[in-house]
């Protein structure tokens, strides 16, 4: 029976929609929620198991014993049918996670679908209200300690404010929602719910590092910002398709990690720096959690004197696995500790440089300013 069950389930998995995890899209899922009738990857199956058997009953297609009625239920349901039921009213601004996304996004997506039933009961989607107030732990700019701070988001004012004191009348800072980026950085912060907000502060990138105690809270903040930003951009640019607006609500960093960097002169020594590649902007820091970068490099198109080359220019010191970024202004000589790191950085940097600039890239004001230039 076990071999027959396995073959039966493998055949079922070949049906349209079933050959990828119902929640994150990972290919060739080996697990199921048999009462929901869906195929799942191992990671999402673990989240389903934490929901409790009253919501989701998890089985392996290979390792577990199957009853006939369970197989028939799997046959009658399937990923597409289940998604049509539990994803009826997913907001356009809500980020649907993929297999490579951070765990908190995937877990809260699953809990929103099956546990909280957010996408069949829109009144539960409180992050769409255009206003949100609450507390997040924020890393101090000077003392490097995380402290609880009150945040207030207002779509009507296009602002995200935070206050240093409970009874403060004046915010410590006021950010424009349509000018900020938000991305999850759990490893960098050392917290599963770690979030980074970046924005322009008088010509330099400013970083805020945040987290909340509960995963739901940080994902709600993330989606509240995305929802407010979408509505603000719809008003500002009524002729722009929703699809284009949504694709630019938030962006993840293309790559981060430690590299060694020299100065502009041939005799300069290598210094260890944390690098962040954010679209066409390459930033470097003495510490990954610094509020401002030590330097920022704009990576233009290849036909404007931008390039990435293995090795160092003549006369420069060398160490490890070096490579050079050429820009019209100057050369940036970098070095990776390992060969595979060098290859990864060179590959992604070449990918960026070989892409033609968009109107958004060409504008110093970011994506919304790029829309103005059309």
From TrEMBL:
Its main location: cytoplasm. GO terms for molecular function: GTPase activator activity; phosphatidylinositol bisphosphate binding; phosphatidylinositol-3,4,5-trisphosphate binding; zinc ion binding. It is found in: Cytoplasm. SMART domains: ArfGap, PH. InterPro entries: Arf-GAP_dual-PH_domain, ARFGAP/RecO, ArfGAP_dom, ArfGAP_dom_sf, PH-like_dom_sf, PH1_ADAP, PH2_ADAP, PH_domain. Keywords: Cytoplasm, GTPase activation, Metal-binding, Repeat, Zinc, Zinc-finger. GO terms for cellular component: cytoplasm; plasma membrane. Pfam families: ArfGap (PF01412), PH (PF00169). PANTHER family: ARF-GAP WITH DUAL PH DOMAIN-CONTAINING PROTEIN 1, ARF-GAP WITH DUAL PH DOMAIN-CONTAINING PROTEIN 1-LIKE PROTEIN. This is Uncharacterized protein. It comes from Owenia fusiformis. The lineage of its organism: Eukaryota, Metazoa, Spiralia, Lophotrochozoa, Annelida.
């Amino acid at each position: 029976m076990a071999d027959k069950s396995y073959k039966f389930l493998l055949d079922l998995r070949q049906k349209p929609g079933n050959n990828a995890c119902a929640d994150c899209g990972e290919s060739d899922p080996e697990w199921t929620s048999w009462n929901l009738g869906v195929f799942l990857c191992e990671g999402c199956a673990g989240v389903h198991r934490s929901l409790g058997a009253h919501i989701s009953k998890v089985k392996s297609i290979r390792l577990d014993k199957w009853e006939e009625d369970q197989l028939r239920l799997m046959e009658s349901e399937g990923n597409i049918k289940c998604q049509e039921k539990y994803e009826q009213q997913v907001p356009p601004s809500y980020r649907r996670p993929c297999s490579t996304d951070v765990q908190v996004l995937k877990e809260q997506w699953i809990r929103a679908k099956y546990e909280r039933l957010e996408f069949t009961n829109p009144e539960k989607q409180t992050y769409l209200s255009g206003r949100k107030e609450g507390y997040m732990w924020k890393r101090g700019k000077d003392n490097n300690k995380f402290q609880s701070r009150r945040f207030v988001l207002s779509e009507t004012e296009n602002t995200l404010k935070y206050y240093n004191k409970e009874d403060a009348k004046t915010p410590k800072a006021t950010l424009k929602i349509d000018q900020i980026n938000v991305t999850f950085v759990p490893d960098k912060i050392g917290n599963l719910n770690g979030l980074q907000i970046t924005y322009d502060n008088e010509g330099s990138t400013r970083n805020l590092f945040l987290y909340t105690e509960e995963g739901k809270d940080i994902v709600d903040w993330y989606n509240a910002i995305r929802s407010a930003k979408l509505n603000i951009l719809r008003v500002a640019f009524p002729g722009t398709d929703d699809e284009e607006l949504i694709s630019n609500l938030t962006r993840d960093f293309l790559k981060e990690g430690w590299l060694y960097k020299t100065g502009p002169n041939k005799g300069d020594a290598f210094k260890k720096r944390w690098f962040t590649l954010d679209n066409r902007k390459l930033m470097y820091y003495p510490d990954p959690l610094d509020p401002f970068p030590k330097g920022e490099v704009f990576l233009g198109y290849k036909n404007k004197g931008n390039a990435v080359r293995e090795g160092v220019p003549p006369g420069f010191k060398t160490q490890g696995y070096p490579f050079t970024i050429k820009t019209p202004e100057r050369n940036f000589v970098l070095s990776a500790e390992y060969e595979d790191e060098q290859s990864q950085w060179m590959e992604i940097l070449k990918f960026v440089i070989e892409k033609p600039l968009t109107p958004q890239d060409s504008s110093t004001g970011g994506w919304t300013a790029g829309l103005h230039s059309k």
